[in-house]
Amino acid sequence: MQAQISLSSTKSFELREALLIYRTDRDSERTGPSAFVTKHSVAVDPSGVPSLGAGSPIQEGDLLTLCAQLRSALPIEFLPSNVLVRSEDSITWWTPASMRRMFYAKEKNTEVAQLSGKKFPQPPLVFRAHKRHLEVRALLRNERPDLQTALYRAPYWNVNDCGDVCLGTARVPPQATVDSLPRWESAFFESEFTHPNSSKRLTEHPGGFVGLWRSLAEKRRFPAQFLVADNQTLHQFITS
């Protein structure tokens, strides 16, 4: 059997080491680990045939080195107070209540199109971004959330039941870094909201989505009582 891997790189790679994984099928055995890994050096003879050297149990340092080599290292960044969680591939942050212009696709809905370009008060929000992907939730209180803070549905078009944002042709940053946060927010608010993307109600306002935003045009404060509970805490959100 032959396998080909495309690494999209001009670097030259050589086979140096191999990892062997040992497992047990005895699920009822609770006295120790159910798997272990050994590391082996690899020798390649002149004809190109590899052979394994003696193995040794893999150590924590080996795993950390391997992870650093397989994935780009997390850059050293100063984390401002709006950042809630930073990992190697994503960043989660919150934004206080604010005023933002909102834009709607004019051909989609006449009532909503009339609101396009106006300023609206926004609830405090929680965003999570990673490569070409953005999620958003709303907060009831205008304060930095903790792990047990309850989240609410973000009352916007283009956002599905899970809080995923349909970015469409929005120009988003290539990476999720501290410096890129304002650009992620701009990509969300300055692109057109084109369609409802949730099967659940987005607001408790008696006039529904259109009634909510029509009542808020050029107002100064978002009424928190119109947010819909999402039955999720910040801890559940960041670990999902």
From TrEMBL:
InterPro entries: Prok-E2_D (IPR032787), PRTRC_protein-B (IPR022280). This is PRTRC genetic system protein B. It comes from Edaphobacter aggregans.
